[in-house]
Amino acid sequence: MNNFTFHNPVRLLFGAGQIAALSREVPRGAKVLMTFGGGSIKVNGVYDQVRKALIDFEVIEFGGIEPNPTFETLMRAVEVVRKENVEFLLAVGGGSVLDGTKFISAAAKFEGDPWSLLTRRMPVKAAVPYGTVLTLPATGSEMNANAVVSRQVTQEKLAFGSPLLFPKFSIVDPETTYSLPPRQIANGVVDAFVHVAEQYLTTPSKAPLQDRFAESILRTLIEDGPKTLANPMDYEARSSVVWCATMALNGLIGCGVPQDWSTHMIGHELTAFHGLDHAQTLAIILPNLLWVQRETKHEKLLQYAGRVWDIKEGNDATRLEQAIIRTRGFFESMGNPTHLSDYAVGSEHFEEIVARLESRKMLPMGERKNLDAEKVREVLALAR
């Protein structure tokens, strides 16, 4: 096991009815900017719950944060924070709203061009404190300090993070996710699954506890993910999936183990060029990347085959291939196709994707830094 430092200061309030706790979690007397997305929270009752809990606070609203939040929209919120001297941010929504709010938190205190936080990885030296009310389980953003932001004018999607960007608290009520459409339920399950895979399907590291944490999350998603599609108001299944998504990316399973994140980096470019949902790109890339990297990931793929999919028969090559096939099948059973052609997307941007990864000095990628430009091309070709 590699050396590691684990620190997660987020106060998490989990379960039905927890939104009422906002009145004691938000600092008394703070001027609050409430951020949200397209307005679904006003239909599903979450908005009313939040405003009732904050009845004694001065609240300014900023809606319209998109899926794959854009720099252009978020900078308008930054202007509000600065102009109104906002003291606390409250993100109410899914991972995109939470990620966008992290950027607002950092950008509002940043001296200089805030886009350089992503392009040049400039350090975050100060941030507006914020909390979250989660309505869509997927990204784990409610319990980590990372975010991804897109810029429309340049068709870029980039990540950044800082220890200063952990939420002060996060409220996770599974009942707020009941009204999600099947597409978003499926996206959440796939996103959480791939988050685990990027930290688990790497190379052996003599970290048995982290392996078993990861395997338990994967098996739980396989078991309860389909239940949430079949019965959206199954509280036990939904609670299980929501908690899996949080645990998949709060830092715990990544302690002391090698990590990959190649699937995410390639997927971000597909979103930037084609507007595909984040989880849709992950479902497309992961099975094909696993196949291209099957020798590099040989030992862990065999472990995955046996412990997660209960594949015990056949030689190594057969079990490894079956594990990848089962992964692809699971994504497709959740309603997430695994080929670009399913979205009428062709190969017109493949070389641009490779060139971008090279220009950002991201290649070679992977836990062994052996996913080079040619292998990225191979992954994309298989994904067509």
Question: Treating each run of at least 4 consecutive H or I residues as one helix, how many helices?
Answer: 14
Helix content bin: 40-55%
Question: For the terminal residues, how far apart are their CA atoms?
Answer: 37 Å
What's the helix-strand series? Answer: EHEHEHEHHEEEEHHHHHHHHH
Oligomer: single chain
Q: Catalogue the unreliable spans.
A: none
Strand-pairing-aware structural class: alpha/beta
For the record, what is the CATH homologous superfamily label of the largest domain?
A: Dehydroquinate synthase-like - alpha domain
Outline, from the CA principal axes? globular
> How many discrete structural domains?
2
Radius of gyration: 20 Å
The order of strands across the largest sheet is 1-8-5-4-2-3
Overall pLDDT: 96
Describe the protein in words.
This protein has 14 helices and 8 strands. It has 384 residues and is of the alpha/beta class. It folds into 2 domains: 11-176, Rossmann fold (3-Layer(aba) Sandwich); 180-383, Dehydroquinate synthase-like - alpha domain (Dehydroquinate synthase-like, alpha domain). It has a 6-stranded parallel sheet, with helices on both faces. The chain has a two-stranded antiparallel sheet with strand order 6-7. Strand 6 (146-151) and strand 7 (156-161) form a beta hairpin. Helix 10 runs antiparallel to helix 12. The longest helix has 23 residues, at 208-230. The radius of gyration is 20 Å and the shape is globular.
